[in-house]
Task: inverse folding
């Protein structure tokens, strides 16, 4: 029996990129049984482009949400609402991908092969590549961290972690939950995911760094680990304030006593692993 997977993509004013993504998914050697493209009230031509593709490919299902003033970052709340309506438990895998990426024709097939090789694999992705002048360069990521822009979940893992959290930091929280439950998580450097917009730059680089700090707080990062991370990003764009903006956002969330999105057990787990890593001890993050 052929593997059945459900793809899902949140979109908002993505007319620059959505056409390339549509062609990329339609060209896969292993097509999804259904692809939910959730348009969060776009005001440009995004909706029309999705509808046009759906007329040619009935397995593409456009979902048009009403225009509203305040959008929830990442679109995970909308994704979980629509996955519930679709009945994601009837599929073998859930494929979540952003609107501003493209992948090669055998990308999904190759990821599925990795799941066949490793029965404990729960979340997997390729490596993220971003534009660098006239070429592409890989965005360094630990091998255990699948990119949030394009990742494949086994149904068993997706169910065990309770689906996707809403808000910034969701892509760290779900990997942490998966590792806690004994699943493997991986990104595979030989499978390229071409990201046509730099990470966290959709609202500008400054806003992006602030989002990274807020995401770290939501995921329960240790303050000590966060300081080390901010120092590592001290000279990243926007120079020279990239790391400072991240630390500012993290500290502001702490001072405001904002609710940490990750549950208590996840926070304990992630902080224990972070402290062990800072002091050179072994961790589940390989």
Result:
């Amino acid at each position: 029996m052929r593997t059945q997977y459900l793809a899902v993509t949140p979109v908002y004013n993505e007319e620059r990129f959505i056409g390339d993504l549509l062609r990329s998914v339609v060209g896969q050697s292993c097509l999804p049984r259904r692809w939910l493209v959730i348009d969060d009230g776009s005001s440009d031509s995004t909706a029309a482009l999705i509808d046009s593709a759906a007329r040619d490919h009935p397995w593409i299902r456009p979902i048009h949400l009403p225009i509203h003033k305040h959008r929830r970052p990442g679109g995970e709340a909308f994704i979980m609402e629509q996955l519930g309506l679709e009945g994601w438990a009837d599929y073998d895998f859930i494929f979540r991908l952003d609107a501003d990426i493209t992948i090669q024709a055998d990308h999904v097939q190759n990821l599925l092969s990795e799941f066949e090789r490793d029965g404990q694999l729960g979340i997997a992705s390729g490596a993220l590549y971003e534009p660098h002048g006239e070429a592409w360069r890989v965005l360094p990521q630990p091998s255990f961290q699948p990119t949030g822009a394009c990742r494949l979940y086994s149904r068993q893992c997706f169910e065990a972690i309770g689906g996707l959290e809403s808000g910034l930091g969701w892509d760290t929280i779900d990997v942490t939950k998966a590792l806690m439950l004994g699943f493997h998580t991986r990104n595979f450097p030989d499978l390229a995911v071409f990201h046509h917009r730099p990470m966290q730059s959709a609202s500008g680089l400054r806003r992006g760094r602030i989002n990274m700090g807020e995401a770290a707080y939501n995921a329960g990062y240790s303050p000590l680990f966060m300081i080390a991370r901010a120092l590592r990003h001290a000279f990243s764009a926007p120079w020279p304030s990239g790391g400072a903006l991240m630390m500012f956002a993290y500290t502001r969330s702490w001072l405001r006593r904002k609710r940490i999105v990750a549950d208590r057990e996840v926070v304990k787990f992630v902080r224990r692993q972070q402290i062990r890593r800072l002091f050179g001890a072994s961790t589940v993050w390989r």
